[in-house]
């Protein structure tokens, strides 16, 4: 497990399921849970990468999972040995395409899959979370500013906070919150940007109020806070380094 400064043991003996845990924000969250004394169940789509991550973190158990497969998602939660204290889902990816080049059927499939994934995690995962626990989704802020190619992502960026608030009412007393990162320096970001990655990093270092790039640990720290703060539900937390304050 990656070493770091001591953290409060405020998740001691609590169980946390992390979906999308094999890299990026999900892996950082699993590490944060372990450093705070919690037990973690890790799920992700890539079996080999997940196995390496679970071994590094010291996971209680791990299971390959495509969260977009509703049947498999239900089986995953049914197979858990008992209730859990917290559930985190980082599953889902952005969709960028200019309207002129967009495959509308592909866009329809992406929107439907993203919403169904969120609802599936809430329906089947929410049923195994203890009443004192938390369900945390990870969305994003990338679609809040209109732009060519961002229509689908903008629609989902707007939809997820409203969906989260509704789920917080319906699943109460389980708390439901959404963490919305801006750009985060993860393997997914690297794969999307390719050779433009370093230029994006340099621009963010120069323009963000925090004068550095947001990393997975920054997002994981907010997720962990939402697990232990029992007064927060139905909320959306931006973790963007002040990106929303910077002119486009």
What does this 3D model show about the protein?
This protein has 248 residues and is of the alpha/beta class. 43% of the residues lie in helices and 17% in strands. The protein has helices at residues 24-35, 47-57, 70-78, 104-126, 151-170, 187-193, 197-207, 216-228, and strands at residues 15-19, 39-44, 61-64, 84-89, 129-138, 175-181, 236-239. A seven-stranded parallel beta sheet has the order 3-2-1-4-5-6-7, sandwiched between helices. α2 (47-57) links the parallel β2 and β3 (61-64). The longest helix has 23 residues, at 104-126. The model has no long low-confidence stretch (mean pLDDT 93).
Structure summary:
Helices cover 43% and strands 17% of the residues. By secondary structure, it is an alpha/beta fold.
Global geometry: globular
Strand portion: 15-25%
Class by alpha and beta content: alpha/beta
First-residue to last-residue Cα separation: 38 Å
**For the CA atoms, what is the radius of gyration?**
17 Å
Query: What's the total count of β strands?
Result: 7
Strand order of the largest sheet: 3-2-1-4-5-6-7
How are helices and strands ordered from N to C?
A: EHEHEHEHEHEHHHE
Q: Name the helicity range.
A: 40-55%
Q: Point out poorly predicted stretches.
A: none
Mean pLDDT: 93
The tally of helices reads 8
| Largest sheet composition | 7 strands, parallel
Keywords: Oxidoreductase
InterPro entries: KR_dom (IPR057326), NAD(P)-bd_dom_sf (IPR036291), SDR_DHRS6-like (IPR051122), SDR_fam (IPR002347)
Protein name: SDR family oxidoreductase
Family: Belongs to the short-chain dehydrogenases/reductases (SDR) family.
């Amino acid at each position: 497990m990656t070493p770091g400064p001591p953290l409060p043991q405020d998740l001691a003996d609590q169980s946390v399921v992390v979906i999308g845990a094999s890299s990026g924000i999900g892996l950082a969250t699993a590490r944060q849970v372990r450093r705070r004394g919690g037990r973690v169940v890790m799920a992700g789509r890539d079996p080999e990468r997940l196995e390496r991550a679970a071994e590094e973190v010291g996971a209680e158990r791990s299971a390959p999972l495509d969260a977009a497969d509703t049947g498999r998602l239900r089986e995953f939660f049914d197979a858990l040995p008992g209730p859990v204290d917290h559930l985190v889902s980082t599953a889902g990816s952005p969709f960028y395409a200019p309207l002129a080049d967009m495959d509308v059927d592909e866009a329809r499939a992406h929107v439907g899959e993203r919403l169904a994934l969120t609802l599936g995690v809430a329906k089947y995962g929410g049923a195994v979370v203890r009443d004192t626990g938390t369900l945390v989704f990870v969305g994003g802020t990338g679609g809040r500013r209109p732009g060519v190619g961002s229509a689908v992502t903008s629609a989902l960026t707007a939809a997820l906070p409203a969906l989260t608030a509704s789920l917080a009412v319906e699943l109460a007393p389980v708390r439901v919150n959404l963490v919305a990162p801006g750009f985060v320096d993860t393997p997914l970001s690297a794969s999307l940007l390719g050779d433009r990655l370093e230029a994006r990093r340099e621009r963010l270092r120069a323009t963000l109020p925090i004068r550095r790039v947001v990393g997975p640990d920054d997002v994981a720290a907010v997720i962990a806070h939402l697990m232990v703060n029992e007064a927060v539900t139905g909320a959306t937390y931006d973790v963007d380094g002040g990106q929303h304050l910077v002119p486009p």
